[in-house]
Amino acid sequence: MICIINWNWLEVLKKSLEVIKDEGADTIVLDNGSKDGSYEWLSTNGPPKTILLPENRGSSVGRNMLIRESQGDILLLDSDILYIPGSFAYLKKRLSECPPEIGAIGFNPWLCTYDKHIQHLPSPDAPLHMNDSLRFAPTHYGLFRREVFAKCSFDENFGVGWGGEDDDLYRQMRKHGYDVRFIDHVFYHAKGTEKWHNQHSVVANTIPLRRDYLRKKWGR
Q1: Mean pLDDT of 141-154
Q2: Would you state the pLDDT for residue 151?
Q3: Which domain holds residue 166?
Q4: For the segment 91-105, what is each residue's pLDDT rounded down to a tens digit?
Q5: What is the mean pLDDT of residues 151-164?
Q6: Residue 211 in 3-state DSSP?
Q7: Strand 27-32 versus strand 49-53 pairing type
Q8: 14 vs 30, 51, 154, CA distance in Å?
Q9: How far is it, in rounded angstroms, from Cα 146 to Cα 159?
Q10: What is the structure's pLDDT at 192?
Q11: CATH code of the domain containing 183
């Protein structure tokens, strides 16, 4: 199942939902108190399973709600990322080829672009890898085995803001014997656009607080 969390990215979300609808994949969208018309548009045009929150309760709360309402393996997707056609099926096949201790695979977040839309998938045998710059869970655009969320969940103490939840989830996964892998492939992400910077400047002050909470929780 594809689970999308949205906060003020209706223009990208619409394009992703058009592609996903054509594929017939089961989808849930949660809107986290958007003020850009997303709330109103989703109330009449969203998937059958749509969760509309009147205010932003943070990505951890939103993702936990999505997971509770979903079934099977879960593709988590941020709404400021454009879904690549066929990527749900692609990631499901790649994950099925992995040993059971690989709990999730996703696209390398450092290879995103905001100057063009990427509409093709990587090769069927593109390497799956891990390094020191990728020690977090692929919550932005990644497929998770259902069983991971029987043992792990997003820490809602992070509150509203940005950063830390993916690091925390990765550490939970490692504690329970799971690891993650990434695929190098360029995809469209609005990160870097003027709108993205303006939106994230509102919550930029939460980043050091979240990092401090993460250090205290895990003792390092």
Answers
A1: 98
A2: 97
A3: 2-218
A4: 999 999 999 999 999
A5: 93
A6: helix
A7: parallel
A8: 13, 16, 26
A9: 24
A10: 84
A11: 3.90.550.10
